[in-house]
Amino acid sequence: MNLSTSNATALIRARGLTKTFGERTAVDAINFDVRDGEFFGFLGPNGAGKTTTMRMIAGVSPRTAGALSILGSDPDTDGPRIRGQIGVVHQQETLDQELTVRENLLVFGRFFGLAHKEIAERADQLLELFQLSDRAKDQVEPLSGGMKRRLSIARSLINAPRVLMLDEPTTGLDPQARHLLWDALQRLKRAGTTIVLTTHYMDEAEQLCDRLVVMDQAKIVAEGSPRQLIEQHASREVLELRFPDGTSGISKAALEGIGDRYERLAERVIVGCENGEEAHARALAHGLTPESWLVRRSSLEDVFLRLTGRSLDE
Amino acid sequence: MIAALAPRAFAVFERNVRVYRRQWLMIVTGFFEPLFFLLGIGFGVGGVIGTLTYNGVEVPYAAFVAPALLASSAMNGAIFDSTFNVFYKLKYAKVYDAILTTPVSIGDLAVGELLWSNLRGVIYSVAFLAVMLAFGLVASPLALLAPFAVIFIGFAFGAAGFAITTHMRSWKDFDFIFIVLTPLFLFSATFYPVEIYPGVLRYVVELSPLTRGTHLIRSLVFGDLNLLMLADIGFLALIGFLGYRHAVSRLGKLLLK
After folding, report:
1. Where are the alpha helices (H) located in chain B, listed in sequence order?
2. B103 close contact with A: CB closer than 8 A
3. How does pLDDT run across B92-101, given as a tens digit for each residue?
4. Is A99 in contact with B19 (Cβ distance < 8 A)?
């Protein structure tokens, strides 16, 4: 990597970024760059250190060690200036229940020191953009989960931030609400906003992210575009063999040689291979009797499985 | 003026104004409590007692009690906001988590909240002063300074309440507030002169922040300017300052982990 050129465009830069809570190391000396205008993801299971990293970037959690630069400033010394130029959406709902939908935007704008008139105009635009105009005067509580999430994002954009940070933005949403949100985020990216999100959904990372890092146990274990990661860390196709009675009884010898590599899960064997159909034929020849099987293209999930030896759902 | 000096703290204050524009009834209820005490104790019990010697002058009992009720209404206004409402925003509604992602600092946040809790105390005191004027319980035009003097009472109790609230774990812990407030209200020279306490007990009571607040307001209402008022102001300001410092440090530990 050519550091001198990436310097010019890195909006967020972390080197040896570390956070410890007492004995526990939540983030362990990680390095990453987020470039201007890109959609950047932190992918990993719960407890991997994604949220802690986001909090450090957002300037609400002082780092224990390492260097961190956001928009050219250090959050330790320049917190208010940095926070003025980023928008943050928490995983947990933090909307103001004592205010109406529109008031949530109006009040938030004032925290950024914006003028009432400017905020009012922007609030109406954002409500329009996020399809909340007809709920402007309503209280927050009766809104659906998807609407609340959209309102949270609209609120985080009241200061026209250069960087939008989203922590698990679609967790708990139904599929339709998820897709609505993805569309909205894509529009924002096209308008030039740099977006950083955390997710433990593979499809979300694959759909949205230009580049991502995979985090596991406080460390970054891989980085690249979704395509690159799949090419580097997974084979072309995947054969999944299902054993509802469990896989513990299957011998190692029977599994080896079916494909390039395999992962044994509780009720599934995942085989990475060039050609899934051929691998399936070899599996049968090895005497395996799966209840069902399928062949698919490799996904980020396989990358994660390969890198950590665990499924994300576990 | 505050909006220009501390725009971020003022934005936090504005948020509360906006919320209470719809919940004004909750503010009005706080006005009635001192009024009932004035009617029941000031005039009711006062009807039996008649007059009382204050600074060597015979004064009607209701006129003696009223300034203390004004002081305690400011205390109640400030403390209820900086305890119950702050706890809700801190622990349940996560209002502060959201605010701290903006350029607002914890110091701004605390100042904004204290401005608001203080305003509540000032509103009660102005309303109560109007009642006192209507009942003819104001001896001196200096009483018009009382709504400014209560700012020190509001600051002391607002900040102390805020500091204590940062240690609260659940709503049950709030029983503690009542255990402290009730005797504070009853025994801080509210219903009788502090001189009646024997020996060292008197000096303990003299150190109650409400005793100091009551002394400050009573001196103004009776037009009796004295040097001890400076001690009242200094003492209340000190409690406010220490409470503010502690609240800010605790909020930092709770919210900026």
Report:
1. 2-5, 7-22, 24-37, 46-49, 61-80, 86-87, 95-99, 106-134, 146-165, 175-187, 199-206, 209-221, 228-255
2. yes
3. 999 999 999 9
4. yes
Summarised one tens digit per residue, pLDDT across range A8-19 is 479 999 999 999
Q: Which of A61, A88, A110 sits opposite B14 (nearest CB)?
A: A110
Amino acid in position A183: D
Residue range B195-237, pLDDT digits in tens: 999 999 999 999 999 999 999 999 999 999 999 999 999 999 9
* Burial (0-12, 13-18, 19+ Cβ within 10 Å), A5: exposed
Q: Yes or no: say if B58 and B222 are a contact pair by the CB < 8 Å rule.
A: no
Whether the Cβ atoms of residue A16 and residue A23 lie closer than 8 Å to each other: no
- Alpha-carbon gap, residue A287 to A201, rounded angstroms: 35
Reported as half-sphere exposure (CB side, CA atoms, 13 A), residue B112 has a value of 25
Residue-range domain boundaries for chain A: 3-224, 235-297
The interaxial angle of helices A145-156 and A116-129, nearest 10 deg, is 140
Domain span at residue B99? 2-255
pLDDT at B153 over 60: yes
The per-residue pLDDT for range B46-97, each reduced to its tens digit, is 999 999 999 888 999 999 999 999 999 999 999 988 999 999 999 999 999 9
Report DSSP state, residue A73.
B
What residues of chain A lie within 8 A of the CB of B8, using their CB?
111, 113
Tell me what the mean pLDDT of segment A114-121 comes to.
96
What topology is assigned to A3-224 in CATH? Rossmann fold (3.40.50)
Output the CA torsion A110→A114→A120→A126 (10° steps).
-90
Q: Nearest CB to B18: which of A79, A97, A99?
A: A99
Answer whether A83 sits within 8 Å of B103, measured CB to CB.
yes
- Tally the domains of chain B: 1
pLDDT tens column, A225-277:
998 998 888 888 999 999 998 988 888 888 988 998 888 888 999 999 989 99
